[in-house]
Structures are given as structure tokens and as C-alpha cells.
């Protein structure tokens, strides 16, 4: 009798534990970015402590393998409860694979533009953890050597072309861009000129192929201006093969360049120790607005992109818990913690002025470069889909800035992609 | 008496003789596992791919029949035809280069040049490396600023010839073809050397007795005798290049301006990077390419078929 009672009690205990133990699975990019891994894992630990019985099992990937794994898993109606996504992946929403988070997150703590980026047919689908702007980083020492000073608000028209030419003539690379492993850094110059020339609405309709055509005279003028800068030897000869990380090192260390147009995730690499690929000690970094074409409709326009975000699997059995975990990160305190740990922006409302210590100066410069800015949301490869996107990558990101094709050819190729 | 003996022989049915020449049950038993694996992992995926190519396949929705829409779209897809052109160029040029150079190297080893043992190992080594390692290695070699190729050109005073080899549409594909040639020539060389080493010595001695010179022996005796080996190597190389993916993905991802896009990289892009879950269109590319590769192999086999049987 005693034995039977003990067994029943044991069985009840096991069943009870099974019923209360819940596991949330999360698949994410950033396998090689320690500070982001640490941030998310700390948030997971805090959520587990606040919710006894809940465990969060995180698998870290590189981006491409993650996307391939997700595609296979989601097609088979499986996959993790939460996964990494970026706002251009509208296929998740189109196929009802992710949960509408409209009523599940505290959106008051999320920046309105970040909410808008993840909006789709009345719902909001992503938790925008990472966000960045396109900035022109300046090596102040090289600029001083060449007697050039670019105002924070940016340099206009021919003046920028002349500055680039002067730096190139002095034997220094003006802009340390490279497209060896990414589909977008080579296009920073061109699309930042385009958004200033056209303004955000027309720029958006150009990228979407709805209204403004690539053959529009303003687009041609913007491309002509970009071509002048390119022809002034703006980019390194090894532009086609330089990878993103190498472009950073090219700019601040070896051989050294005058400028680098990059997402404001620049510090995540550059602020590492010098022997880990970071800037040399005492490197004098400036941040300015990009070149402004003559007749710009919106000189203060620039791009802000929501990067790494988390979404909840629509077929998750733990959807409420998963959303709860994301909501636990949607607080201004977590936003500031993200900024401080990762030195890159976030869609969570945060206050960069509260950042103290050695990086406070950087955030002040970044804030100054963005004062009064009007944003377009997403770099072109986030706004375009299919063949136009592939053509943009090949043409505007690589062939055009590499000097392999001219303005008319670029326009013709982009026109035929839609 | 007669009656009593007759029924014993007539009533007993004749014992079925076992056909030892055709043991059907044994054949079936042995074939079944292999056929099952073939059906599950080859036939079924091929059939499914053909099915997908005529359907719109997206999650959470039943497959939608779209007929030959994908095939018509593919016919008008400029990137696909660019990829086809690149792949065919690669699959035509590389086998000829690999087998020609491999034959010369094998002849050198066959003639026992100095350090032949070392050279055999050295020339064979590249094929032991994966395409990923080879890709990274050659990206360094082709690097514009400090790569070996441009450093050498600058060292001999040909600075103007230095260029981003993988970054220009005119040089990117030839540069990658050179990589696969470097990688596979050693393998071909070993196979050809093995074929040469197994040539019947009587034939070679007879040629020498007939005062046949070195070139004559090569042209009229050795090459005809190793012809089947050479042709098989060409066909194998052709098939390998028609499927090439890894090297391109590691080095250029099809850039610049699709100059190195191959059909395999394009299928991958369409399947995993095109912001769509639809597997129909990539399946269509796979089906069309399967037919083209099959036709190519059949054409090569027919072209190379030995018309006159060698007698020796």
C-alpha cells in the first residue's frame, strides 16, 4: 500500500513537472557577436527567473545558415517559437508564418518609426531590437593633413567632388568601401545621394517601382553626381573584394582612408581593442552627413534601417510566453543597456545622452550628425524584392561604384529589372 | 503388378527444379534495399521537383497548379540565361584544359623526370582540399593590393596589368576557371598516369622496333590506347563543372554583373534569397538544368563513341 502510494506520488510529481515546465526555443543570428549574444542571454536568464518553470533554449547561427534552416523548418510547419528576422522579410507575413504582435508588446516603449517598419496590413510583426543609420565616418587626421573640413551637416555639390579628388591626388583613398561579402555597402554613396535629391516619398516610390522611374531626370542628375565622385577615384581599386570587416580596418588602420560610409553599427567592430581589429588608440573619429547633390529636395534626409529583430512563430504552442519574453526586453532600461553594450542603435526607446564613460563622446557625435534628420526607412535591399533587388545589388552596389558601367547603362539595367 | 507400380510414379507431382541461373527471390532480396534507398533519396525527390515545377508551393496553403508558367518565366529570365552561358563556358573550357595539362604532366612523370615522386604528390595535393579552402586561398592570391598575382606583375614591372581579377566582368570567370584547372589537373594526371602505366609493353616495344620516334609513339600508340580514360575524365569533369557552386559562392557569389553566376548559385539565390517561400520556380530551373546536363552527357558519350575498335 505504502509502495503504491509512493509510486503514485512520484508519477504525479513527474506529470506535474511536465505540465509546468515550458521551453521556449529561439534561433538567432549573431553567433559571432559576443555582446549581442550576452545581451539576449542575460534577458533570457532574467525572464526565466521571473517565470519559474520556463526555460529559453537559444541556438546561435550565422545569418545565411539561419535563413536556410528557417526556410526548411517553417515550410514543414515546425521551427522555433521565436526567431531572428529583418523587416524586408515580408514573405513571413505574406505566408502567415509569424504572429501579429500588435496587442502583445508594449509599443509605447518602441520608437514609432521602428513600429512602422514592421507594420504589415494592419498588424505589427517584429520586435525591432537593432537599428542603425547610414553615416559618413571621417578620419579627422587624414582630413587635417589635406586641409579639408567637412561640416557635420555635410558638404554640397562640387565641393565634395573636389575634396575627394584632392585626397586621392595626395595618395590616400577617399572612401574605404568594399562589397566583398555584403549586398549593400557599395550603394551607400548612391542611395544617400538619391534620397537627398528626391526626398523620402519619391525615393521610396523609385525603389518600389511605383511612380518615379530610374529614367527620371532627377535620378539621372543624382547618378551623374555620384559618378563624378566615383570618377574622382573615391573607392579603393580592390573595392570588389574588400569585405565589410576589412573596410573598417582599411579606414582606420591600414592603409588608412579619409572616410567610410557605414551603418552606425561601425563601433561594434571598430571599438574593439586594436589587436582585435579595432581602431588604433587615439584615433580621431568624426561623423558627418553624406554628400549633398545640387538641387537636393531634402538635404537632411538619410537612411535609418531596422536590423536584427525577433518575431514569434505563428504556429508556436508557447506564443504568449514567447511574446512575453520579447516584451520583457521592451523597456527603456533594456534599450539603454543595448546601446551601452552594443554601441549600435535600437528600436526600443532609449536615451543616448544617459550613456556615460568612454563612449559618451561617440554618442554625442552621432546625435549631432542626426539632429534634424528626416529618415527613409530601410536601405534599398530592405525595400526591394526579387529581380529589382538582385539587379540593384549587382549594378548599384557593385558595377556602378566600381566604374564598370556608366550612368546610362545603370539606368537601363535598373529600368529593365522591374 | 503393372497397376500397382504405375500410380506411384504418376501421382507424385514432379519436383520443381530450382533455377540456379535465375534465383528470382534472391535477386529481389538483394535488390530491394538498394531500390528502396534509390526510390526514397533519388527517384522521389526528382519526381517531387518535377511536380513542384508546375505548382506554386508556399507554406500553409495547398500547392496550386500553375501549368508551365514557371517555364515561360524561365525562358524570359535573362539572369538564368547568363548563368547558363557561364556554366556551359566553364564546363567546356575547364575539362579540355584540365585533361590536356594533366596529360602533359603525366607524360613527364611517365618519362621519369627528376623529382617525379615529389612532383606527383605536389601536383595531386590541390584536389585534397575543399572548395571552401581553395576559394579563400585564391581570393588571397587574386587580391588586388597584396595578392601573389599582382605582386608578381608589379615586381616584373607590369604594374598596369595588375587588376582586381575577381572584380572585373572580363577576368572573373577566367580567373575561376583557372582555379578549378589548378585544383583538378593533379587528379586527372594520376588517373592518366595509371592508364599509361598499364599499357601493354609489347605494343610499345613493337613501336620501338619499328623505329617509331618519341612523338610518334605518343601520338600513334599511347594516346589512342588511353583515349577511353581521357574521354571518361572529360565527361566527369564536364558533369562536375555543370554543377559547380561552392567555389563561386565562397569567392564571388556570382558577381560582378553576373559574370560568374552559375546555374547552381542562381538556383540557391532563387530558393533561399529571393524573399519568397515558393519552391516552384527554383524547381523549374533544376528540372531544366537536369535535362540540359543529361543531354550534354549523352551528346558527349555519342560524340566520343569509339568507332574503330583498337586491335593490338
TrEMBL record, chain A:
Pfam family for this entry, one: SBP_bac_1
GO CC, alphabetical: periplasmic space
Subcellular location: Periplasm
Signal peptide: 1-21
Main location: periplasm
Record's keyword annotation contains Signal: yes
Keywords linked to the UniProt accession: Signal
Similarity remark: Belongs to the bacterial solute-binding protein 1 family.
Official protein name in the record: Carbohydrate ABC transporter substrate-binding protein (CUT1 family)
Taxonomic lineage of the native organism: Bacteria, Pseudomonadati, Pseudomonadota, Alphaproteobacteria, Rhodobacterales
From TrEMBL, chain B:
Matches recorded under Gene3D superfamilies: MetI-like
Pfam families in the record: BPD_transp_1 (PF00528)
InterPro entries listed in its UniProt record: ABC_transporter_permease (IPR051393), MetI-like (IPR000515), MetI-like_sf (IPR035906)
Transmembrane region(s): 25-46, 88-109, 121-141, 175-197, 218-239, 279-300
CDD domains in the record: TM_PBP2
Recorded GO CC terms: plasma membrane
Keywords: Cell membrane, Membrane, Transmembrane, Transmembrane helix, Transport
Localization per Swiss-Prot or TrEMBL: Cell membrane
Annotated ranges, domain ABC transmembrane type-1: 84-300
Membrane topology: Multi-pass membrane protein
Disordered as annotated region, ranges: 1-21
SUPFAM superfamilies per the UniProt record, alphabetical: MetI-like
Coarse class of the protein's main subcellular location: membrane
Signal peptide feature range: none
UniProt-listed GO biological process terms: transmembrane transport
Annotated family: Belongs to the binding-protein-dependent transport system permease family.
Protein name: Carbohydrate ABC transporter membrane protein 1 (CUT1 family)
Species of provenance: Aliiruegeria haliotis
Lineage: Bacteria, Pseudomonadati, Pseudomonadota, Alphaproteobacteria, Rhodobacterales
